[in-house]
Amino acid sequence: MRKFRFRFLNSLFILLFFVFIALIVIIGNLFESFVFKGSSENTLQTMWSTLVVTFLIGFLFTVYMSSRVSTQLTRPLEGALKVANELANGNFKARTYEYQMDETGQLSHALNILARNLQNMTSSYEMQQNRLMTLIENMDSGLILIDAKGYINLVNKHFKETFEVEADQWLNKVYHEAIPFTELSSIIEETFMIEKTVRKQISLPIGIEIKHFDVSGAPILVNGDKLTGVVFVFHDISEIKKLEQMRKDFVANVSHELKTPVTSLKGFAETLLDGAMENKAFREHFLKIILEESDRLQSLIQDLLDLSKLEQAHFSLDWQKVDVCQLAENSILIMKKRADEKNITIDFSSDENAVISADANRLKQVFLNLISNSINYTPPGGKIRITVTKQGETVKFKIADTGIGIDKEELPRIFERFYRVDKARSRNSGGTGLGLAIVKHIIEAHHASIKVESEPGEGTSFIITFLKERK
């Protein structure tokens, strides 16, 4: 705009300059012919000098007024042009000065309104985009967006963390080249082909483990028919699958554990009815086995009931002051007969006044379970060492045996229901496989912690740390 005004004024001033020269010549000749006819050379020279100066002043005044008027006329247009260029470049905060409300003022006002509307629309759009991206990035499911050409446009944070990938590994790449999972590529291809929602459950190897996903794929359609891309949401259902498998295993284990004593009871009862009852030795032997299997069945049912109570949300403990030393001594006395039968020595030492807030009956159940396990897995002639020590605001109970020990890979599973390190030894000893699961629940209910240390062939240690005061 400035260049145009400069060129225009230059042309105008040159034209005016020649017009003024022509006027000076014409008017001077007229004055010389009629007004100053017969005048002296000095008079004529003075007339021409006056005429030139007068017209020069008039020319300069005309130039000044033309520049001033031109500036007043073009300034609003320059401001409007500058704002228009800023808007075109995406700067919607630009504004122009609104002059008097003539045509140029109205143009400036209209441009300012347009700029404000564009700024409001852009701010609203950016806010919605930020909200959407925040939602996508923080959602508890993986999300991947693929355009109509098959290029991956978006991968959210949860997806990257779950699949252990970096953004640049997949972004802006064709899905069947970037995604290493054939099963997942097939689902994406199916969604593109049928242009309908697809939902499937798949298992994929992620790192060193197999993860299970519920995958939902949906086409993105514009105007109801034009496909612009597809979006996929990945729900990690690995924990659900694990719980489902645990439920199946639990039902299978319970069925097996119940079936064994029931089969024995039925078999020996039938044998007695078939004539063995007449033989006193057989009768006493079979009845003794029936009694043992009944006790085992009763023990299993009682453990199942205890475990069920411990897992209930409204389960509560009978909190009271408990002397851990005295409770441990009582538990050892109860189990001493079984230890003597295997010639196992139980050593016990304790700090004085090891008192905590706890449920005495539940704590006794923990000690009996742990001592029983140590006796079961310690060979004849072995030793069990039990200590109770005070450490600041905590009391530690430790039981260490010289038993068969536990392999390192089996340690994380020993608190699972029905899990046995040595299945044959556990069943022969009458164990139900629920003892350590019950121990763990009771310890957690007391806000305590339990740790296991073991070496195969050397023995196992269980260390429980109690708080002296209830949380």
Describe it.
Helices cover 57% and strands 19% of the residues. It is α+β, with helices and mostly antiparallel strands and 471 residues long. The chain has 4 domains: 1-138; 139-236, Beta-Lactamase, CATH 3.30.450.20; 241-311, Helix Hairpins; 320-467, Heat Shock Protein 90 (2-Layer Sandwich), CATH 3.30.565. The strands form 3 sheets. The chain has a 5-stranded antiparallel sheet with strand order 2-1-5-4-3, sandwiched between helices. A 5-stranded mixed sheet has the order 7-9-10-12-11, with helices on one face. β4 (209-222) and β5 (226-236) form a beta hairpin. The protein is elongated and about 175 Å long. Residues 424-429 have low confidence and may be disordered. Residues 253-470 form the Histidine kinase domain. The chain crosses the membrane at residues 12-31, 46-65. One of its GO terms (molecular function) is phosphorelay sensor kinase activity. It is a multi-pass membrane protein. Residues 128-173 form the PAS domain.
Q: What secondary-structure arrangement, pairings included, does this model have?
A:
Blueprint (H helix, E strand, L loop, with lengths): L1 H34 L5 H48 L14 H36 L3 E6 L4 E4 L1 H7 L3 H4 L4 H4 L3 H13 L3 E9 L2 E14 L3 E11 L1 H36 L6 H32 L8 E4 H18 L3 E6 L4 E4 L1 H18 L5 E9 L2 E8 L21 H6 L6 H11 L3 E7 L3 E9 L4
Parallel strand pairs: 7-9
Antiparallel strand pairs: 1-2, 1-5, 3-4, 4-5, 6-8, 9-10, 10-12, 11-12
Shape type: elongated
Provide the helix percentage. Answer: 55-70%
* CATH class bucket of the largest domain: Alpha Beta
What is the rounded Rg?
49 Å
Q: What number of structural domains do the residues give? A: 4
Number of helices in the DSSP assignment: 13
Distance between the termini: 79 Å
H and E order: HHHEEHHHHEEEHHEHEEHEEHHEE
Name the CATH architecture of the largest domain.
2-Layer Sandwich
CATH homology group of the largest domain: Histidine kinase-like ATPase, C-terminal domain
Count all strands and give the number. 12
The oligomeric state is: single chain
How are the strands of the largest sheet arranged? 2-1-5-4-3
Note the main sheet.
5 strands, antiparallel
| CATH fold field value of the largest domain | Heat Shock Protein 90
Strand share of the residues?
15-25%
| Helix/strand/pairing category | alpha+beta
pLDDT < 50 runs, ≥5 residues: 424-429
Round the mean pLDDT to the nearest integer and report it. 80
Protein name: histidine kinase
Organism: Exobacillus caeni
Main location: membrane
Enzyme class: transferase
